[in-house]
Amino acid sequence: MTITKDTLYIGGEWVHPHSSRTISVISPHTEELVATVPEADSGDVDRAVAAARRAFDEGPWPHTSPKDRAEVIRAISAAIKARAQEIADTTTAEMGAPRSFALAGNTYASALVLDGFATLVDGFAFEEERPGFGGRTCQVVKQPVGVAAAIAPWNVPLFIIAMKLGAALAAGATLVIKSAPEAPLTGYLLAEILDSVGLPPGVVSVIAADREASEALVRHPGIDKVSFTGSTAVGRRIGAICGEQLKRCTLELGGKSASILLDDADLATAIPGLLPAVFMNSGQACVAQTRVLVPRHRHDEVVAALDAAIGALKVGDPADPETFVGPLVAERQRTRVEGLIEAGVGEGAQLVRGGGRPADLDRGWYVEPTLFAGVDNQMRIAREEVFGPVLAVLPYDGEDEAVRIANDSDYGLSGSVWTGDVEHGIALGKRVRTGSFAINSGAVLDLLNPFGGFKQSGLGRELGREGLEAYLETQTIIPPVG
């Protein structure tokens, strides 16, 4: 059954869109129509920003107590948990996320992020006294940033929105959420939840739109801060606009993360731990660790172990609980991934497994899990973000070279090391210029601590205290002396 939506959630109400344009949501598995929803235009953006502006400038939300804000955030989290399977199934249907990932990595992780912000608010010092010049005592006050725009991608739609939503609500800011056109239905479910928890009108609006309306949102004079997750190319554009307008922004962008296997790595532990960090969400993750660096003398051993493990992964219908690798989100994405695979072969990398389309799937935008060996770090498959199920194995000679290769990237988002000596792994991790780095773990981030990247992986941090502070301004109240 095809879902049809004809309203947008703006200002605490379900309203008819400004124009008649619509977005068609296509199943990446069946290539059939899943839903039709309104496409917001600049008129809808104006209406959403105006509602958020009123809610911030005239409404009670910025002045509510941290305790009350935390209670609202917890209520949103509880409602997500209560509808977790419905949300996960929706994400699977609209953008093809494997069911297990959609439930754990997108839905329950979103609730945990919100719970984390609620707990953080409980103990956060929004006001503190500090000694000032001349013996006076000043007050340093954290004020909400104002009206924020949250622009989310399609790959982990609820989780990425939750990082922005939790921080904005915790700070006392108001928010306009812009869902990706490939995954708008998740936004509708979130809007239903927001509508049920008693938020004042206009505190959060949810629209779905493509690039034209997204740029109108970023440029809007009523927006004080932009938080964007997506490609580095679009991030540059948004950063330029925000810089021109002196508008605060957080940018979480691309990645080409490296996992380093040291001489003493135990493959029986490392390979199963590494695979989710590579192939989560069918490789459609900015944090995917798609470069595996291995000692040259262990190269063939590691490649053989990876080949066997990848060969055992179930590929197919994302609604099947056993599926590990599903389809890519769109035909254009499959075409891009196939082009990079072709480039890898053309540049001399050894194609060990995959590289084509699954023979048993005659429809859907699938690419086989693909393994390259003997990769040089100057090849395109080692430098460009593939955003698909493609893994490159790079040999190194000595740990210094491993660190050099890991750092020889335009990006710096995630990474890991696998070793029998944890302290040594920690020391090595501090040499790798990346926002998150795990020791003997496939964890690509920590839900309670800052997440973001070095270099072209972005600006600023989400999650944790730093994520909350990104939605706050700092004010100093100076009393008279004496």
UniProtKB/TrEMBL annotation:
<dbReference type="Pfam" id="PF00171">
    <property type="entry name" value="Aldedh"/>
</dbReference>
<comment type="similarity">
    <text>Belongs to the aldehyde dehydrogenase family.</text>
</comment>
<protein>
    <recommendedName>
        <fullName>aldehyde dehydrogenase (NAD(+))</fullName>
        <ecNumber>1.2.1.3</ecNumber>
    </recommendedName>
</protein>
<dbReference type="InterPro" id="IPR016160">
    <property type="entry name" value="Ald_DH_CS_CYS"/>
</dbReference>
<feature type="active site">
    <location>
        <position position="252"/>
    </location>
</feature>
<dbReference type="InterPro" id="IPR016162">
    <property type="entry name" value="Ald_DH_N"/>
</dbReference>
<dbReference type="InterPro" id="IPR016163">
    <property type="entry name" value="Ald_DH_C"/>
</dbReference>
<keyword id="KW-0560">Oxidoreductase</keyword>
<dbReference type="InterPro" id="IPR016161">
    <property type="entry name" value="Ald_DH/histidinol_DH"/>
</dbReference>
<feature type="domain" description="Aldehyde dehydrogenase">
    <location>
        <begin position="14"/>
        <end position="477"/>
    </location>
</feature>
<dbReference type="InterPro" id="IPR029510">
    <property type="entry name" value="Ald_DH_CS_GLU"/>
</dbReference>
<dbReference type="InterPro" id="IPR015590">
    <property type="entry name" value="Aldehyde_DH_dom"/>
</dbReference>
